[in-house]
Each structure stands twice: as structure tokens, then as C-alpha cells.
DNA sequence: TCAGTGGTGTTATGAGATAACATCACATGC
DNA sequence: GCATGTGATGTTATCTCATAACACCACTGA
């Protein structure tokens, strides 16, 4: 984050009620699909939702235990892999961080706007990759998943 | 790479003459710009050009010495940072690898098509990010650089 | 009851990247 | 020539990110 600006305030995390609701929805949906929404998976998703911005894996590991005890790395990485597979979270490769999915859509390749100053991110919807799809078709590639991450400044940091 | 297919042949590395020419061009251009194209930087660029596909940083480190001696990590990472800053190489975040720029354009945000089977990559030109630019403007973000990486299968691996 | 499957706990290690500091090369101005 | 500033390198150590491997457990269906 910020080399140049020092105000780390963006829209901020969702309320506890928002987190609860999202967790409940996710649990219900996955259970209905026959998936097992276990305690570790719920906990990691809860941490991601509560953060409201990208979180480093080792921060999740540190915050994992409600009593302050950290988790073992594989516990969190396994949960992240599951959540990502199920479309509930995304890995942001350019900053090696993870974020809860903010889109209602189930199966999607997300694109992100990332503020290098305050860390705010915005998940934007699909059509951003239409040009990429065209290029892939032209080159004869069959695309499975895409990583689209734009770095810059968010409106708040631009205004400051 | 490949879980599913086992033919690691794509267009393959450029000839030694191609590499030499590209190195000479890069050297001339940067020298003209007042930059110092040092031995380490040339060597790393040579390794990237010769590979003709993304290379892991620690592979560059291992191959660095012409006598088989590895480099120290900072040597290679500094060279990579310089080459990337000058538009001669790109980092591919989704696979933590580096590749020589295959575009003539000087200052550009590249997009990549990456074959998960054989490792081939294709650098495709700018307009793929037009949708992203539109989304960024709509959200009020000022974009500085983008990471666009599409994973899938190349034509050769699809045919097999 | 007994496999088979998928999830977890735990230890250890592999892979990717950088901090910090001393030293060196080179250009500029005296 | 010689001081001085700047950018590049050498070197050591360390930090961050991620996974391998294996034992154990819970649930399911024969
Ligand atoms: Zn999403
Ligand atoms: Zn911001
Ligand atoms: Zn390029
Ligand atoms: Zn291929």
C-alpha cells in the first residue's frame, strides 16, 4: 500500500449482521449442493467477509482462532482453495491476497480494481474480459480462467 | 504444468541469432536513453529471451552463471525489476514467473494467454483491457497498471 | 462391519522475494 | 587529479507465501 498517501479509510467493513447473513447464505447454498461447509471453511469466509478488503493468507492464519491462537497454514490454505473453487472467494495474484466474492453470480471470472494507496478493492463484473476472449479466440486458445487486476488509485485517495 | 496432456512442444525458443539481435537492440535503446545496461541485466534478459517462455526467478538464478554457478537472489530480482520497469520483461503474477516482452511497443500493459498444459504463452496487445478501462472510469479509479492473464489450452495442446 | 472417500491435524520443508549494509563504478564539478 | 554524489553490485540473512506427506477421523454405502 501507500507510499504516497496516508489515509486508509474507504467504505470499510460490512456490519456484523451483513457478515452473518452472507455466511448463512453461503452455508445454505453449499449444503444444498451437497458440499460440506465445515467450521474451518466458515471461519475463513467469516474473516474475509469481515475484512471487506483483500487479506493476506498469514493474516487469516493469525486471526483464525477466536481465542487468539493462530491456525496451521494448511488449515487456512485448504479452506481458501475450497472457497475459491466454490466461487465464494478470490485470490488476487498480483498482491498475493484473498478476498470474499462480492458478486451474486455463482461461476464467474472476476476482475478487480485495486487501490495501491489504501488497499480498497472493487470487484467488477464480467464484460471487462470481452477483448481478452476475442484475442484468445483469434490465437486459438481455449480459456479456462482469467486473472484481471487493475492497480491505481481509488476515488477517495484521488480526492485527498 | 500439464496434468492432462504430456506434449511439451510449442513454437520453441528463438534462435541464438534472434536472441543476439534482441539483446543488441535492447542495449542500444537503453544506452541511448541514458540507462546502464549492465552485465547482470543483459544476462537475465538473455536467459529470458533464450527460454522463449515464462521462467521462474529461481531458474534464472540457477542458470545465471555461464560456468554453472548460480547467482545470489537479489542479483536476479534487481535485474528483473529493472527490465520490467523498462518494458523489456513482464512478471506473470498468476504463475510467479517472468517472460521477455515480445512486443515492440515501449510502454504497455500486456495481456497474456497461458497454456496450463505445455507452458506456452502468448503476449497479446493492448485493446484487451478496454472493458477494464471503462469499468475503472465508471468506478472513479485511476488505473496505473494492469495484470491480465488468461489460462487455458494452446492450439497445439487442444489438437493433441 | 468394513471398505472408500473426503476433511482435518501436524510436522516439516519448499519456493518466492526482500531488508540491510558494505563496497564498487562512474560521472560531474572543482 | 581528486572530492563527491548517485546508482549498481555483492553478500548475508531473513521474511513471506505455499505445499508435501502422513496419520487420524467422520461419514457413506456395500
Ligand atoms: Zn466474485
Ligand atoms: Zn485508496
Ligand atoms: Zn510486453
Ligand atoms: Zn499447450
From TrEMBL, chains A, B:
Protein name: Fur family zinc uptake transcriptional regulator
Native organism: Brevundimonas lenta
Record keyword Repressor present: yes
Binding of Zn(2+), residues: 115, 118, 154, 157
Pfam families in UniProt: FUR
Cofactor note text: Binds 1 Mn(2+) or Fe(2+) ion per subunit. Binds 1 zinc ion per subunit.
InterPro entries to which the protein is assigned, alphabetical: FUR, Fur_C, WH-like_DNA-bd_sf, WH_DNA-bd_sf
Names of the cofactor(s): Mn(2+); Fe(2+); Zn(2+)
MF annotations from Gene Ontology: DNA-binding transcription factor activity; transcription cis-regulatory region binding; zinc ion binding
GO CC terms in record: cytosol
Family affiliation: Belongs to the Fur family.
One GO BP: negative regulation of DNA-templated transcription
Amino acid at each position: 500500500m501507500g507510499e504516497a498517501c496516508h489515509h486508509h479509510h474507504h467504505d470499510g467493513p460490512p456490519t456484523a449482521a451483513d457478515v452473518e447473513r452472507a455466511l448463512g447464505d453461503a452455508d445454505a447454498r453449499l449444503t444444498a449442493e451437497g458440499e460440506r461447509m465445515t467450521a474451518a471453511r466458515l471461519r475463513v469466509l467469516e474473516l474475509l467477509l469481515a475484512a471487506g478488503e483483500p487479506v493476506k493468507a498469514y493474516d487469516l492464519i493469525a486471526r483464525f482462532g477466536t481465542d487468539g491462537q493462530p491456525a496451521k497454514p494448511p488449515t487456512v490454505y485448504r479452506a481458501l482453495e475450497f472457497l475459491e473453487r466454490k466461487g465464494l472467494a478470490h485470490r488476487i495474484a498480483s498482491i498475493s491476497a484473498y478476498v470474499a466474492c462480492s458478486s451474486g453470480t455463482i461461476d464467474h471470472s472476476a476482475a478487480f480494481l485495486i487501490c495501491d494507496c489504501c488497499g480498497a478493492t472493487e470487484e467488477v463484473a464480467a464484460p471487462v474480459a470481452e477483448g481478452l476472449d476475442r484475442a484468445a479466440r483469434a490465437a486459438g486458445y481455449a480459456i479456462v480462467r482469467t486473472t484481471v487486476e487493475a492497480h491505481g488509485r481509488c476515488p477517495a485517495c484521488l480526492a485527498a
